[in-house]
C-alpha cells in the first residue's frame, strides 16, 4: 500500500499542465494589435473571394470599427481581421466565412474557418512572468492533490500500526 501511495504521488507530481493551442488557435500578447488571417490548408481563399468575419459574440463584421480593422489580402477581400489592443476579454473563437464573389446577390458560400484567440491563455512578453504564473498554478494544483493523498497514505499507515 505504501508503495502504491508513493507511485501515485510520483505520478501526480509528474503530470504537467502545459496549455496547448489547437491547430486553429493563436496566441497574442496583451495590449497589442493582433491580426487573424482567413487561410488554412483546408480552405484557401481564391483571388477575389470575399471574407466575412464573425466575432466570438456572433456579431458579423461588415465594416471596420475602432476595435476591429478589416483589410484585404493580395486579392482577397477582408482576408484579415485586426483586433486592436488585445485584452483578456478578446479571447474566444472567431470565425471567417469565405464567399466566392463579393456580389451579395450572387455570392456562393465556400466554407468557414475557426480562428481561436488566446483560448489557452495569452502570450507573455517576459517569459519569467509566464514561468511564475505556471509555477503558481502548478504549485496550487500540487498542494490541492498532495494534501489529501498524503493524508490518505498516513491514515492508512497509522491504521496498520494501531491494529
Ligand atoms: C495565412 O496568411 C498569413 C498572412 O498573410 C501568413 O503569414 C500565413 O503563413 C498563411 N497561412 C497559411 C496556412 O497559408
TrEMBL record:
Transmembrane parts of this sequence: 133-156
CDD domains, sorted: Ig (cd00096)
Keywords, comma-separated and alphabetical: Membrane, Signal, Transmembrane, Transmembrane helix
Signal peptide stretch: 1-17
Taxonomic superkingdom: Eukaryota
Domain annotation Ig-like: ranges: 32-98
Designated name of the protein: Ig-like domain-containing protein
